[in-house]
Amino acid sequence: MTNLCMAIFMALVLGSQGEPSATSLDAMLCPYDLNGDGVVNNPDLLLFLSKYGQVGVYDQDFDGNGSVGITDYIEFMRYKGGVCP
Ligand SMILES: [Ca+2]
Ligand SMILES: [Ca+2]
Fold first, then answer.
1. Residues near ligand 2 ion, CB 5 Å cutoff
2. How far away, in angstroms, is 42 Cα from ligand 1 center?
3. Taking the domains of the chain in order of start, what are their residue ranges?
4. CA 81 to ligand 1 centroid distance, Å
5. Per-residue model confidence as pLDDT tens for the chain (85 residues)
6. Ligand 2 centroid to 72 CA: how many Å?
7. Nearest listed ligand to the Cα of residue 66
8. Domain 2-79 class in CATH
9. Nearest ligand to the C-alpha of residue 70?
C-alpha cells in the first residue's frame, strides 16, 4: 500500500509539470492506452495502478520484466497526456 500511495503522489507531482506534446508521438504510445479510448490519461493511470506491485504477465508490465513496478510507472508517465495514433 505504501508503494501505491507513493505512486499516486508521484503521479500528482509529475502531472503538474506539464505533459508531452501529442504531435510527435509514434506507435510506441499505444501500449500505454490501457482502456483503448485513444488517449493516455488518468483512466489509464488508474488501470495501471490497479496492477501496481503485481508479479505476472500484465498489459501494465511495459518493460516486460515480469512485474508491474516503478520502471513501468516511469514509462507510463513519459507518455501520459499523449494521443494514440
Ligand atoms: Ca486511454
Ligand atoms: Ca515491469
1. 61, 63, 65, 72
2. 8
3. 2-79
4. 9
5. 677 766 666 666 555 444 554 444 455 568 999 999 999 999 999 999 999 999 999 999 999 999 999 999 999 999 999 998 7
6. 5
7. 2
8. mainly alpha
9. 2
